[in-house]
């Protein structure tokens, strides 16, 4: 390949890397994420009974540090006891409630506050509320002595901060993302928590009997809808535009350099066959049965070139020729090293993902409940986008070699079909009976599914790991937003599905490789030397004996030679010519010929070579 072509290919490849890494993230979505308040209250609180903070079983000096906590509690009470309560508040069992609020592995985007309805450990309810004077043995602050006569229907409350933001960021107290840790945070009056059973064990030095053991029966979870925002990342958009402009410039350069040249491009198999028939290569004369397998067994280039200096008879062997023989072993190895390494990495990631999260607990695609990745490492937006799109780049590289395997094998099917029946050449610019090319190498029945497969895998990978941006909202009314959190999330379901689909698709070329090629023809594998060796045609005008002249008169083929031949219907096989002697062996000739030349398939055990009596 000329150095200029190499430079252009390298520039095209390099300019594709930024597009693969950035194009998918030019448009970004910002979702809402919120802190929440977990209220432990009696059943009566759900019907509008009085509640205040701190609760009856809480340590008041701790809760008194929170601003707007009373206003928030009043809003919660009004909402849960109002007419829209069934639509806004979802009733959950204890297990579901703990999954949503207790473990805190996911982002709260569609839910906010929760009310855990308490009763006593013996199973009785707390409909009447809790007289503070009866509940508390002592108070840490003399200022709350006037609360002794209060009957509070709220036992306690704990705010939880967003899981997508560093714990305690911009908060007065070192709040927690974990419900158990928040409940036990000193100077809490709770000394033990069992969320699975819903049990709260109170400090006996602070709480009287029978209030030292409380049980959560169920909870209500508040549904919220905060509109998301869609934005354009200007830095990435600029980079994408620059790369697209650079690619356009490269295309213009290619048109300027090659567009004005008179020679036809060898874009299809038919173009190559036509070129070698019209202008045969003398270096391949005499080796008409040459195949790619022969070249693979010859390591030295000079040995291959030396074939042109002699006619080499070869005995034909009818073998089972599979499509995979068209692809060199080195190409198979390189392609599946790249594809295999990618699958190994994806398998390891899927294994790690399923160890941390159960498959049925994960959501497919972009979902706040998906696992978070590197959010606490200070990862900024653009590095996060580049990291999330790295699988897209690797996938594009794998698709290039994957498409190359199909291209080589399907081109071989087209090549081998010339040994089955006479057919016109498929060329870039059809002449005569030739077919104008509607594609390069892949038929639509293969190219369209491959494009769909590429789109499907890119879509799956973009849902497996992705950039998430959350706009944080406080837990207290009026719920102001205060910062943006940027990071990565991954979907366990999408990762496992991506792995399964990738493995299935990766083995398809191996299946195609075992499919038998049609007819009985030398394997070319797109090698120009093999194609050239098969294109030393013998037209009736080249025949020097009476038999050839008589055949020309019967068929009506003119004497214009190869130029006229390539515009008709061609078939490859044994040409009916006078037998020649080479190295003491009677030999025949294999080549392309007209549909009128009674071409037959090669005969097992017969010797074939170019015939010296014909011009080629």
UniProtKB/TrEMBL annotation:
Pfam families: DUF6536. The chain crosses the membrane at residues 236-258, 326-349, 381-402, 446-470, 490-515. Keywords: Membrane, Signal, Transmembrane, Transmembrane helix. Residues 1-22 form the signal peptide. InterPro entries: DUF6536 (IPR046623). Residues 2-46 form the DUF6536 domain. PANTHER family: DUF6536 DOMAIN-CONTAINING PROTEIN. This is DUF6536 domain-containing protein. The lineage of its organism: Eukaryota, Fungi, Dikarya, Ascomycota, Pezizomycotina.
